[in-house]
Predict the structure of Peptidase M23.
Amino acid sequence: MRLSIKKIILVLILVFLPFFFSGNIFAQDANEDRIRRLSEEISKYEAELGRLVSEANTLSNLINQYNTQIKLTQLKISQTEEKIILLGGRIEQLKDSLDALNLAYTQRVSETYKISRFSEPHLLFLSMSNITDAINSFNYLKKLQASDISLLGRLEKAQNTYQEEKSDQEVLQKELEVQNKSLSLQKNAKAKLLEQTRNDEKRYQSLLASAKAEYEAIQAIIAGKGQETAVGHIGEGERIASIIQGSSCNSNGTHLHFMIVE
């Protein structure tokens, strides 16, 4: 009877053995393809991480350039602000001087007009008791007129300078706005570069870890690290083999799995 059971087992082995090996060969080929693909992915991610590391110096230089440019722009902004403050003080002084000159010129013109009404040469000589007083009055009038001309020139110059300073102030104000915008763009570009660099490194580290974990899991299955347990002796009429649906042990698909224990 025991010999008969062994013959039956041998016949079953011979019948199912081709399916068993074909299933194993298929599973082995699939595993090898998977391992090859994972190896390629690992190499790619390691190369990418290597590139990121090799570019660290270049990145550092680029960040230093951003820092230097930002510092330079900040200094230019400070300089422009100081110019605006200084120019504002000068404009205020010019305005005060302009107001004073306007007042002085108005008063002088009024005074000169009053004197000139009674200082026509023939009236002047007739109104004076002697010729000396007449000559002195005439000379005084001439000096007043010359002073008025000088005062008028100073007034016009002050007005022109005031307008020029106001125009310069407007130019500086626009320049300051441009510099502030430039500073904001430079800071944003630096922040974006740093964030992108951090995200790239994290992403490739995660992909590399995932690929390595899957690679090691498949290698462990191939090396026979699956868990297999003896269930006992085979008696007459007992089932010694069955078709397993899905992956199990050393196969990742439906296959025949059995074990013989003497």
